[in-house]
Write a structure and sequence with these properties.
The protein has 202 residues and is an alpha+beta fold. Helix content is 51%, strand content 25%. The protein has two domains: 79 residues; 110 residues, Alpha-Beta Plaits. Strands 1, 2, 3, 4 and 5 form a five-stranded antiparallel β-sheet that branches.
Length: 202
């Protein structure tokens, strides 16, 4: 199709406008794509930062849970008087109470000198574990007397009681008449373990 000069002049302006609009549209599309890419990068960064924040919060929550568990254990040990210096007077009172309440016929014991088991490095100071061995001799009517004695001893607190050895043997005495005669003899070595926290405030 051939255009005359007049027709070409009439089409020149609309064609120029069309070209300008096409260029503006292309520029607008390019700008939108650039903004969209920038927004996508910002969104990815925000999602990454949120994931990192969630991980940090999860770590903090886990550390807080561990601290609370350790704090609860520490308070429990403190309440049982396992943490702190030896409580030998309380040990003697406990033994007397158990003997009376259990109506044990014969109960003898001796607590040896305290010894350092292990010193665990810590901040700001070490934690030391000490042990004093209690040697116990018991006259028993039956095995249940020994089990009751050990239960009462552990329930009393004032130390962590670790039974190293307990031997039971029969006694040569035989029951006579209505008198109560012990039938068994128990000999035990029991470690009374205490913890000294050097950093704890006294």
């Amino acid at each position: 199709m051939n255009f005359t000069a007049v027709e070409a002049r009439k089409l020149a302006l609309p064609l120029l406008v069309c070209l300008l609009l096409l260029g503006a549209g292309a520029a607008l599309i390019a700008q939108v794509q650039s903004v969209l890419a920038h927004d996508n990068r910002e969104l990815a960064d925000a999602q990454r930062q949120r994931a990192e924040s969630n991980q940090r919060l999860a770590r903090i929550a886990e550390e807080e849970r561990e601290v609370n568990e350790k704090l609860a254990l520490y308070r429990r040990l403190k309440a049982l008087h396992i943490i702190g210096p030896e409580r030998r007077l309380e040990w003697a009172d406990t033994m007397a109470h158990i003997r009376t309440s259990r109506e044990l016929l014969d109960l003898r014991y001796q607590v040896e000198r305290q010894q350092l088991l292990v010193s665990v490095p810590g901040k700001p100071a070490n934690v030391d574990f000490y042990s004093s061995t209690m040697k116990v001799d018991l006259a028993l009517l039956h095995e249940g007397d020994l089990l009751g004695f050990l239960k009462d001893l552990r329930d009393s607190g004032n130390a962590y009681y670790s039974i190293r050895r307990c031997d039971i043997s029969r006694m040569g005495q035989a029951p006579t008449g209505t008198s109560i005669v012990p039938r068994l003899h128990a000999s035990c070595d029991i470690d009374l373990i205490t913890i000294l926290d050097r950093a704890a405030k006294t």
